[in-house]
Amino acid sequence: MKRRNFIKKASVTGLGLVVVPAITSCATEDEKEKKATVTGKALVPVVLATWRFHNATKAAWEVLEKGGESIDAIEAGCRVEEANLNNTTVGIGGSPDREGNVTLDACIMNKNGDYGAVVCMENIAHPISVARKVMEETPHVLLAGKGAEQFAVEQGFKRENLLTDASKKAWLKWKEKSEYKPIINIENHDTIGMLAIDKNGDISGGCTTSGMAYKMAGRVGDSAIIGSGLFIDNTIGGATATGMGEEVLKTVGTYLIVELMRQGKTPQEACEEGVKRIVESNPNYKNFQVGYVALNKQGEYGCYCIHGGFGISKYQEGKQTYIESNAHTKKA
Ligand code: GLY
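Above: the input record for the complex with glycine. Below: its predicted structure, written as tokens.
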């Protein structure tokens, strides 16, 4: 008999244990019990983020801990890295394009499957919050460039210079050679993608980035594109991505991962399959990194990447942990 997973309604016991048993339609009562014992108990709330973005997951956790909704936790967490001047891949202080302009991409998804995003937006430091405004205040889902910036200003966001002295110096140094060989996220940092489940068992997600350093003007990667940098389905779970956006876009990576979880794969298996699709379709994979994180509604999570060095920051039960991801290849 074909097995299909059903998610039974979660029973919430305050801030802490949410029992979300996974059962199979053709299982006997004994089998159901066994399955529930093995995989069915998850402690929520929980928040996961790409990389060692510990301050971001801490900020998200503080929202969840007070009983806040996952969408608020996601926005609060992502804003921390957007404001971090030392993070050259997200928000203010992000590396500019080859013309010296910092352009930001971000998206957010809530428990209802609503989506909001901005791409190629300049002069506004918190694209995750603008993305949320797009989701909540407009009939649209995605605003780009000048239109996104204009909308942000109308919503009360202030214009500011996103190019810090340090980013400008690095860009000027790059210009001496102007070597257009984008190597994204081989180093230990990049886009922040975040997934959170709140005390009600509802999942939301966000993803925010300045994209590839010294990219062509107008280049947009995966981070703000639904199903690529982020996908959330509150009946199944969510996934987010970091790394070479072109490859994630071509394989619609996070939509694929959520659909694989829908078909019964664990988050770990689904992330591995997502990476496999890229590796098998692109012989050049040794020259770029992609990392995926997935979280299902039972609170199970997984991560996988092309090259070692990637990992995820997790906050749960008031504790911060870093989980090193397994990789398709050894450390790049
Ligand atoms: N993953 C970030 C980008 O490719 O823009």
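Notes for the reader.
The pocket of glycine is lined by residues 184, 191, 209, 211-212, 221-223, 242-245 (CB under 6 Å).
Residues 2-325 form a domain with the Glutamine Phosphoribosylpyrophosphate, subunit 1, domain 1 fold (CATH 3.60.20.30).
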